[in-house]
Amino acid sequence: MGPGRFATPSFKRMRQSSHQVVGLLTQPDRTGRGHHHHVNPMKELAVAHGVPVWQPDNVNLPESREALRTLDADVCVVAAYGQILSAELLAIPRLGFYNIHASILPKYRGAAPIQFAIFHGETETGVSIFRIEPKLDAGPVLGISTLKIDPKETAGDLEVRLAALAPELLMRILDDLEHDRGTPIPQDPAAVTKAPRLKKTDGLIDWSETNRQIDRRVFAMQPWPKPVTYLHQPGHRGIRLLLLDVEPVDIQTSAQPGEVISVEQGTILVAATNGAVELRTVQPDGKRPMSAADFLNGHSIRVGDRFDSTP
Question: Whose CA, among 63, 81, 232, 300, lies 20 to 30 Å from 191?
Fold first, then answer.
């Protein structure tokens, strides 16, 4: 069960293994703005290799449960499926449901573990595979693989690396299940942290945060919901900018958070609640990403102009 790129490497590896993939449950086809069809890579892979596909709006309905029963599956592997699974559904496969989760559980239970790990300044994360129980991400863990987070890594880049980390761990666990090996380890309730689903407003840059919090938000919120700020200048409408690369700068300043404190030598320095943030790569609405120097070539920014989270 999985819709997108996080699930794809594990799906491919399962197909190449000694285990038989008897079906795929994935999200329904979606149509975006302008009636553009969104490609579901999991569906395309399954169809290309003759794997039956189901795309229920609600996987917990009786007809969905019946479809799963017809597969007579021993195990169901889940990766970023996006729906809460009912107890009735979880009881169908002989050996249960197992989820590939993009964190070192019990840290960052929820829909946005990658973004929360980056935002909270973690230097290490990983993938955990656990048996699914009715309580969200709370089941016993069968295995964990870890990796280091690069300082300038976006959530999108880290997702790709975590997706590539999962398949070998999954193979080991499926082999253990087949041969009745392995000991699931209960999660420590005292160590649980949450990573709830992101909102669009989570991408808004709050200049009253510390310079390092702003730095981490910029990388955690790419590719979605995107790190957004607005440049305000006297006599002009606010300019919406995406911040794609920034650097925290530890300096003393009396400027208010969000206030431009320097535009020297092609750099833009903006006050945070402590120190400052250097804007390195920005993207104005409708334009390509550009360096701060290129942005300054087309916009006359002065010390005292300000950035804010509102238009």
Answer: 81
